[in-house]
């Protein structure tokens, strides 16, 4: 009886691993598909500064009113902060972002780079 139980346990583990792998690959596929036309939205102190398509390689130096700055580099469909005037440099050490909802934050400069889908959201209700 113990041999059958061990065999069933192994089968269950293999099935769970295959199901988890299939779910992971499905998520990756749909995330890649949904961010095909992604946009890097740059906000400074909560106000939108600019929108940059991830399909076009470019480098933007974002100047802030107090003289501080961040350099946003978009290459190969990914947005990355490659240089900043802040002391800690956490935003520079952050890995590039390219998926909807991912962001890079520079607290000292009050800068946020967030990835959004390129499609405009539809209005579903209007309030007065």
Task: Describe what is shown at a glance.
By secondary structure, this protein is of the alpha+beta class. The protein has helices spanning 2-34, 90-93, and strands at residues 39-44, 47-53, 58-63, 69-75, 78-84, 103-106, 111-116. Strands 2-1-7-6 form a 4-stranded antiparallel β-sheet, with no helix packed on it.
Index terms:
128 residues, alpha+beta, mini-chromosome maintenance (MCM) complex, domain 2, 2 domains, 4-stranded antiparallel β-sheet, 3-stranded antiparallel β-sheet, 2 helices, elongated
Outline the structure in words.
This protein is of the alpha+beta class and 128 residues long. It folds into two domains: 1-34; 39-116, mini-chromosome maintenance (MCM) complex, domain 2. The chain contains two helices and seven strands. It has a four-stranded antiparallel β-sheet, with no helix packed on it. A three-stranded antiparallel β-sheet has the order 3-4-5. A hairpin with a 4-residue loop joins strand 6 and strand 7. It is elongated and about 70 Å long. The mean pLDDT is 86.
Low-confidence segments = none
Domain count, please report it: 2
Work out the number of β strands. Answer: 7
CATH homologous superfamily identity of the largest domain: N-utilization substance G protein NusG, insert domain
Tell me what portion of residues adopts beta-strand conformation: 25-35%
* Envelope shape: elongated
Average pLDDT works out at 86
Estimate the helix proportion, in percent: 25-40%
* Backbone structural class: alpha+beta
**CATH fold descriptor of the largest domain:** mini-chromosome maintenance (MCM) complex, domain 2
Strand order, largest beta sheet: 2-1-7-6
Number of helices: 2
Please state the second-level CATH architecture of the largest domain.
Sandwich
Please tell me how large the radius of gyration is.
21 Å
CATH class call of the largest domain: Mainly Beta
* Main β-sheet description: 4 strands, antiparallel
C-alpha termini separation: 70 Å
**Order of helices and strands, N to C?**
HEEEEEHEE
């Amino acid at each position: 009886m113990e041999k059958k139980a061990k065999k069933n346990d192994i089968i269950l583990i293999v099935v769970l691993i295959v199901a988890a792998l299939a779910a992971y690959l499905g998520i990756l596929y749909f995330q890649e598909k949904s961010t095909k036309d992604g946009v890097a939205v740059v906000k400074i102190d909560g106000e939108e500064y600019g929108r940059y398509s991830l399909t076009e390689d470019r480098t933007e130096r974002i100047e802030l009113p107090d003289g501080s700055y961040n350099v946003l580099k978009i290459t190969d469909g990914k947005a990355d902060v490659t240089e900043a005037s802040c002391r800690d440099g956490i935003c520079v050490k952050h890995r590039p972002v390219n998926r909807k909802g991912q962001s890079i934050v520079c607290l000292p400069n009050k800068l946020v780079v967030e990835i959004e889908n390129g499609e405009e959201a539809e209005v579903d209700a209007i309030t007065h």
